[in-house]
Every structure is written in structure tokens, then in C-alpha cells.
Amino acid sequence: xxxxxxxxxxxxxxxxxxxxxxxxxxxxxxxxxxxxxxxxxxxxxxxxxxxxxxxxxxxxxxxxxxxxxxxxxxxxxxxxxxxxxxxxxxxxxxxxxxxxxxxxxxxxxxxxxxxxxxxxxxxxxxxxxxxxxxxxxxxxxxxxxxxxxxxxxxxxxxxxxxxxxxxxxxxxxxxxxxxxxxxxxxxxxxxxxxxxxxxxxxxxxxxxxxx
Length: 211
Description:
Elements: H1 17-27, E1 33-34, H2 35-41, H3 47-60, E2 63-68, E3 71-76, H4 83-90, H5 92-105, E4 113-117, H6 119-122, E5 131-137, H7 146-163, E6 167-173, H8 174-183, H9 186-194, E7 196-199, H10 203-206
Parallel strand pairs: 5-6
Antiparallel strand pairs: 1-3, 2-3, 4-5, 4-7
Helix pairs in contact: 1-4, 2-3, 5-7
């Protein structure tokens, strides 16, 4: 089953975050999925919300819906004119990670570690959420080192320009890392569980594992 798009309003198919979640799931496979399977794979959204989104996207032509007994099977219509735009939007997160890694690779003073954590890493942040970055400063670099501070400021500016979200920088020294590894406050558990490493060792290695 395939309907028509409104060519006078080509942006109309994607009306809400749940639409993008549904399209992200369908983009990741060529296997037809039931509405129940799509709802299980989205990061946020109820079954009724997913069903409504699938119906709407089918009517717009971005999603193909084929009857299968009492259910429908859904696939992304990759021939649709809007499909490349959907692909670009779905690739925003990996593109952000790539840009961060490229940025940090060019730093004159390399960090011991840099990662994304918090709501951005978990995928449950909103437009008002900061993109939280955990940065470990080398032990031989003082807090006031001009090159180091310039790098952090430039990184924060770029994150804002790339995403519209402010960067929340949590900076510690190598000495602080050793103390955090011993004391293991909640932030260490959060980093070990959710953080996405941009540079340096993984958090579990950084903090020395459980003690």
C-alpha cells in the first residue's frame, strides 16, 4: 500500500520526533517489520504513537505498508524523493561523533580522555539539553594553560554551532581520575555505563574497574 506525498509541502511527512524514530528503525533494515516490532525497536514512543506514525508515513509514501494476514508489514520506501534526506538526518549522530574525533585529533595538547555522557549519550535529551563532555587534562598541563583552555573553548563553540546545544564540559585532572576511581561517586558509574568515548581509554579502564 503506497499513497501520495504533498509536493507543495515536501517537509510534511516528518511531523514529530516519533516519526524520525520510526524512520530510523526502518532505515536500519530491509526486512519488513510489523508495527509491534517497530515499537519495540524505537528508543522512545508508545505502541499507539508508533502505529499512528506508521499510518501517516505510509499515507505520505515514505513507508510501504503491505498486508500480512491481520497485520501490516512496513519497510522504508528508499525510492522516495525524501529518502536521502531521511538518511542524512539519521546520520547526524555518527557525524557528530566523527567531527568530535577529528577535532580532538588536531589538538596540540591531547586529552588523556574525552567522552560524551549524560542524556546525549543515552539518547534521551531534548533541545534544551546540554551535550555533556567529560575531559581529562594531562597531569603535566596546568589548569590555566592557554593552549588547553583555547582548545576547550573552541570545542564548546563548535558543538554549539554544529548542534544548537551548549556543551557541558566536566573537566578533571589525571590526579582527580585516580581519586574518582577510588571513591567511585555516581558520576563514575554513569560514565562507565553510558559514556561514548571520543579519545583515550574507555571509562572502565580509565577508572580501573570496580574496587
